[in-house]
């Protein structure tokens, strides 16, 4: 069953910065881009590297380990680099909302 969880205050998340929170035993990366809030699992499906160490280019978060790119809006893989060894390299995403100055995530 999904529930809304308060992740952090909206004012604590700066534009194009990545913050990681733990909710429901998951590490979730939260990103603000163009005044929208995005949340995705902080784990690359390739070898489990933390995505928070990657770089954000437009709406693509590139994994620091092997340069795989994921669209922060959908979790879809947009660039697997040299390594293609899994069928559907997608990252789980989570719905977000801002309520009373707090960022909430549906987990």
From TrEMBL:
Keywords of the record: 2Fe-2S, Dioxygenase, Iron, Iron-sulfur, Metal-binding, Oxidoreductase
Claim: Iron-sulfur is one of the keywords in the record: yes
PROSITE patterns in UniProt: RIESKE
Name of the protein this chain belongs to: 3-phenylpropionate/trans-cinnamate dioxygenase ferredoxin subunit
Record-annotated Rieske domain positions: 4-105
UniProt GO MF annotations: 2 iron, 2 sulfur cluster binding; dioxygenase activity; metal ion binding
One Pfam family recorded for the sequence: Rieske
Domain of life: Archaea
Cofactor(s) it depends on: [2Fe-2S] cluster
Organism of this sequence: Methanolobus profundi
């Amino acid at each position: 069953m999904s529930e809304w969880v308060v992740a952090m205050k909206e004012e604590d998340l700066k534009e194009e910065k990545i913050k990681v929170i733990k909710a429901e035993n998951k590490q979730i990366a939260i990103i603000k881009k163009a005044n929208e809030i995005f949340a995705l699992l902080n784990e690359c499906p390739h070898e489990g590297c933390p995505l928070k160490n990657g770089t954000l280019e437009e709406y693509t978060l590139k994994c620091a380990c092997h340069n795989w790119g994921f669209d922060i809006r959908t979790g879809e893989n947009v660039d697997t680099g040299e390594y293609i060894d899994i069928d559907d390299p997608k990252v789980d995403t989570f719905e977000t909302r801002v309520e009373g100055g707090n960022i909430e995530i549906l987990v």
